[in-house]
Design goal:
Keywords: FAD, Flavoprotein, Oxidoreductase. The chain is globular, with a radius of gyration of 21 Å. Helices cover about 50% and strands about 15% of the residues. It has ten helices and nine strands.
């Protein structure tokens, strides 16, 4: 392997990319190692977001690559996936911040917004002058969100009045615009709305005492008589089926994030195994340590293969809900195992932030739950393979 290869990419999936794509990723990796890696442990411990990095992400060309921007076409699904992997192998929280903005918020705008709305908001979203958030989950609903939102939308002339609450909204405390989904009381269908910062009746409060993805600023949002113009209603969102188009797009992305988190933990464990000495030699020379490393590498390789296939199916336009569900469920479950083994390999030192493994260990717990729990995703797969629904 060359020095620019991924240590965890044992089968060389990265070689499926073009030379230019690999060169771009090398530049991103250098940026992440130089400017992001040195600050994430402190930011994680303090549960604070390093806002000074936001313009740097845009300068590095890490924003909105999945969508065309002027004369630049959208990049390949494979490159988008590997970008998410590269970010997650340094820090899953930063990857989640960008995933919410690039995937959920910009994806909602690209898939559900009108051409006028895209022209109005997306240029500043590409440069991160405007940061986006996505508000679907509610305090009393998570897995059953498709069956009906408690947040309501009532039309009054050319204005919509939103009432309700949202929870676990990533970027919600500082986003410039939040994509809010609510149930239209007139037809009982889900509609999407762009709520801009400072809109009366909108309030966001940081969720405290969170012990996974601590850098991500998750918010409780309340909407109290929040008035939004019809011009801010996403014109191509008329039911939950439309919302699911966005979720299908981003659920596959979580698989890549899980692979990245596994790789980050594996790299930390591999470095530790080479440096830590017991009984007069590096622990990497002990059979049980090599067994852990080999099991970690097996999980990474299997999950990366699935993520690569996800990108290929997305490129072909044949990617299905059940495939997204299986990829998300499988990869995050394997990530749970893998980061646990990384922490185990380090013994007592594994619980110290200095060695990174415990940060991945905690953060993967959130990846395992969001964008659909393992149980819900397995039921989506089960319905596809049996033809029988088993949800309730």
């Amino acid at each position: 392997m060359t020095t620019t290869d991924l240590p965890g990419d044992f089968f060389g999936y990265r070689n499926l990319l073009t030379d230019d794509e690999r060169a771009f990723l090398d530049g991103v990796r250098a940026f992440l190692d130089k400017e992001v890696r040195p600050v994430v442990n402190r930011a994680w411990a303090d549960a604070e977001f390093p806002h000074e990095l936001i313009p740097r992400f845009a300068e590095q060309g890490m924003v909105g690559l999945g969508f065309p921007d002027g004369d630049r076409p959208a990049v390949s699904k494979l490159l988008s996936g590997f970008l998410g992997l590269e970010i997650s192998r340094v820090d899953p929280s930063i990857s989640t911040f960008l995933g919410v903005h690039n995937g959920l918020a910009m994806g909602s705008m690209a898939l559900l917004g009108s051409e006028e709305q895209q022209q109005r908001w997306m240029p500043d979203m590409f440069t991160l002058r405007t940061v986006g958030a996505f508000a679907l989950t509610e305090p009393h609903g998570g897995s059953d969100v498709a069956r009906g939102l408690e947040t309501t939308a009532r039309r009054e002339g050319d204005t919509w009045v939103l009432d309700g609450a949202k929870r676990w909204i990533g970027n919600g405390t500082f986003a410039d615009l939040v994509i809010v989904f609510a149930r239209d009381v007139a037809d009982d269908q889900v509609k999407g709305f762009v709520v801009e910062k400072g809109t009366p009746g909108f309030a966001a409060t940081k969720i405290e005492d969170k012990f996974a993805l601590r850098i991500v600023q998750n918010a409780d949002i309340t909407l109290t008589g929040c008035r939004v113009p019809e011009a801010n209603r996403l014109q191509r969102c008329n039911s939950f089926r439309d919302v699911n188009r966005v979720l299908r797009l981003t659920r596959g992305g979580v698989a890549w994030n899980a692979v990245g988190a596994m790789m980050g933990a594996y790299e930390a464990a591999l470095a530790y195994a080479g440096a830590r000495e017991q009984f007069g030699r590096p622990i990497g020379g002990f059979q049980l340590i090599q067994d852990l490393l080999a099991k970690m590498l097996g999980n990474i390789t299997a999950s990366l293969g699935m993520a690569v296939r996800v990108a290929q199916l997305q490129t072909d336009g044949t990617f299905r809900d059940e495939q997204a569900a299986l990829a998300k469920s499988f990869c995050t479950s394997r990530a749970r195992e893998t980061v646990g083994w990384a922490r185990e390999l380090m013994g007592g030192n594994g619980i110290l932030l200095d060695h990174d493994a415990v940060r991945f260990f905690a953060d993967v717990e959130a990846l395992h739950s969001y964008e659909g729990t393992r149980e819900i995703n397995t039921l989506i797969v089960g319905r596809a393979v049996t033809g029988l629904g088993a949800f309730v």
